[in-house]
Recover the amino acids of this structure.
């Protein structure tokens, strides 16, 4: 999840756990507790760009880190608020809920989360919800504003965050339902169309849970397509790319390339663009790829030493305007008009 969503959810949980004893300070503790795993951003001070990709959502998002940081933070809060007489065990339960929920939510999108670091480099990604989904975040966000704006009576202060978390939880259950349905549907279509694959990614497109992005990969080919929950066709329109691993040649053993390949979790594709050799991570999609199948991929890394070597997330909204938004909404609705060539 994005940072603002974590803060809003954390504050709501803080109010429910500690609001009676700590008042508005519970919101601050909740926001802080829910944000603790993201301290990995400081690793950018001593790691290079490629290493930072793995450092983010690495050890600080592991089960081991959560187990270690929970009693430590609980001890700090317990000593800080001795006057409020909150039991240490309650702080442990509070911080454990916040931290474990954070790493659980982050595993629901396609970046990958290192639950088992440092014992295993496997990245957990369930691809259930987009990293920033306003339909998931709006209720906790409004609840936080309500709690900040006015000093409500206790029963009303409980109602706002409790209702917000319930609504977000119900939305998340709906997202899981979409994921199961879309996985089953896409696999059946790929099978009917005789498209072979070793790895399959089915993940939501930006800011919604209706239009899904599909990547099917084997040793030689990558197949990329889109599918809406409102589509009524029984075939999946895909564009195929050569995997291009052979273009790496001796670069395959370079530390930087090994790091990038490990980060991409098997969804890498190498292209030659003019004199540049580009490594794409297909998980992050194409810039308006649902409309333009030839659009560049969001994550692309130049392996040939140009100054601007990394483009990740940059340009995701390039070319977006009112017409593009209308077209995007139409595609979500199931309009499969011929894409721009």
């Amino acid at each position: 999840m994005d940072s603002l969503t974590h803060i809003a959810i954390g504050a709501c949980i803080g109010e429910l756990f500690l609001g009676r004893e700590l008042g508005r300070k519970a919101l601050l503790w909740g926001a802080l507790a829910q944000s603790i795993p993201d301290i990995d951003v400081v690793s950018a001070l001593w790691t290079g760009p490629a290493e930072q990709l793995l450092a983010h959502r690495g050890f600080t998002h592991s089960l081991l880190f959560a187990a270690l940081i929970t009693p430590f933070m609980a001890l700090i809060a317990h000593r800080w608020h001795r006057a409020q007489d909150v039991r240490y065990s309650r702080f442990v339960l509070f911080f454990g809920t916040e931290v474990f929920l954070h790493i659980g939510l982050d595993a629901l999108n396609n970046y990958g989360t290192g639950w088992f670091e440092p014992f295993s480099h496997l990245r957990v990604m369930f691809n259930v919800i987009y990293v920033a989904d306003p339909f998931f975040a709006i209720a906790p966000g409004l609840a936080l504003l309500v709690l900040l704006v006015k000093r409500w009576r206790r029963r009303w202060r409980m109602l706002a965050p409790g209702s917000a978390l319930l609504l977000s939880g119900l939305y998340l259950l709906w997202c899981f339902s979409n994921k199961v349905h879309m996985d089953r549907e896409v696999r059946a279509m790929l099978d009917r169309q005789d498209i072979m694959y070793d790895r399959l990614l089915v993940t939501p497109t930006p800011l919604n849970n209706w239009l899904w992005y599909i990547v099917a990969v084997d040793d030689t080919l990558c197949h990329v397509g889109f599918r809406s929950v409102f589509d009524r066709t029984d075939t999946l329109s895909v564009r195929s790319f050569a995997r291009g691993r052979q273009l790496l040649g001796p670069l395959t053993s370079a530390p930087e390339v090994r790091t990038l390949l490990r980060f991409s979790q098997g969804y890498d594709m190498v292209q030659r663009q003019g004199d540049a050799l580009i490594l794409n991570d297909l998980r992050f999609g194409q810039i308006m790829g649902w409309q333009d199948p030839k659009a560049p991929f969001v994550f692309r890394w130049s392996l040939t030493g140009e100054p601007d070597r990394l483009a990740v997330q940059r340009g995701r909204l390039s070319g977006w305007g009112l017409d593009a938004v209308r077209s995007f909404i139409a595609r979500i609705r199931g309009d499969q008009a011929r894409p721009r060539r």
Observations:
- The chain has two domains: 3-174, 193-332.
- The chain has a mean pLDDT of 91.
